[in-house]
Amino acid sequence: MNLDLIPQIKHTKSDNFFLLSGPCAIEGEEMALRIAEKIMTITNKLEIPYVFKGSFKKANRSRVDSFTGIGDEKALKILRKVSETFNVPTVTDIHEVSDASMAAEYVDILQIPAFLVRQTDLVVAAANTGKVVNLKKGQFMSPESMKHAVTKVTDSNNQQVMVTDRGTMFGYQDMIVDFRGIPTMKEFAPVVLDVTHSLQQPNQSSGVTGGRPDMIETIARAGIVTGADGIFMETHFDPANAKSDGANMLHLDHLEKLLTNLVAIRKTVNSLK
């Protein structure tokens, strides 16, 4: 994948990691613009290549009464508004083959959720749009097996593909990150570490996923040290009242300090090459 081919992306010559960040779900226009503006200010200051992330719908929910979105077209239009307002690329996840062409009209990167990354028709549909494809590694998959998912994209005449590690199931209610997977997967695609979903605690009896946001910096630091090309991180100015994944999101007020530390670590890592 060539980072420079992502429309509107900035700071690609800074030798920094790139960042995919934003709220878990698009809850409305005001919140999306507020979060995007804050992250843009920080990433421009630190010269981090940045992509705004927001799900236009949440199809994978534990309970039928869980928040799934504000309406597909409404949320996608907000993603376009963010892109046009701040001149920033955007990424959203898709869940069905029909989502691919629809979402491709509004965003720059199509993300395949971890639970769906083995769905060949979905992966190929995303690849066929010509957009960058971000493949989330299944919680149940080895790093080595992700090569086959990458090949589905490249065999569809699309070389713009990346892989995101979002942790591996450890028992029923915990996730772990096997950092050996980062150099393994870098052999066939750029690798992003999803530091917030990696700290989820799923399958709670309440039907609401828990998390360990206090460990976000620990996981993120380790990801930079082990060579992650990018960092994926969900953030919100009010995680406690976010409509999705609030238990493992980073508070927006803590983002600048964390990214500043990660940039310093990246510079040290680069100096050791």
From TrEMBL:
<keyword id="KW-0963">Cytoplasm</keyword>
<dbReference type="GO" id="GO:0008676">
    <property type="term" value="F:3-deoxy-8-phosphooctulonate synthase activity"/>
</dbReference>
<comment type="pathway">
    <text>Carbohydrate biosynthesis; 3-deoxy-D-manno-octulosonate biosynthesis; 3-deoxy-D-manno-octulosonate from D-ribulose 5-phosphate: step 2/3.</text>
</comment>
<keyword id="KW-0808">Transferase</keyword>
<comment type="pathway">
    <text>Bacterial outer membrane biogenesis; lipopolysaccharide biosynthesis.</text>
</comment>
<protein>
    <recommendedName>
        <fullName>3-deoxy-8-phosphooctulonate synthase</fullName>
        <ecNumber>2.5.1.55</ecNumber>
    </recommendedName>
</protein>
<dbReference type="InterPro" id="IPR006218">
    <property type="entry name" value="DAHP1/KDSA"/>
</dbReference>
<dbReference type="InterPro" id="IPR006269">
    <property type="entry name" value="KDO8P_synthase"/>
</dbReference>
<dbReference type="GO" id="GO:0009103">
    <property type="term" value="P:lipopolysaccharide biosynthetic process"/>
</dbReference>
<dbReference type="InterPro" id="IPR013785">
    <property type="entry name" value="Aldolase_TIM"/>
</dbReference>
<dbReference type="Pfam" id="PF00793">
    <property type="entry name" value="DAHP_synth_1"/>
</dbReference>
<feature type="domain" description="DAHP synthetase I/KDSA">
    <location>
        <begin position="8"/>
        <end position="265"/>
    </location>
</feature>
<comment type="similarity">
    <text>Belongs to the KdsA family.</text>
</comment>
<dbReference type="GO" id="GO:0005737">
    <property type="term" value="C:cytoplasm"/>
</dbReference>
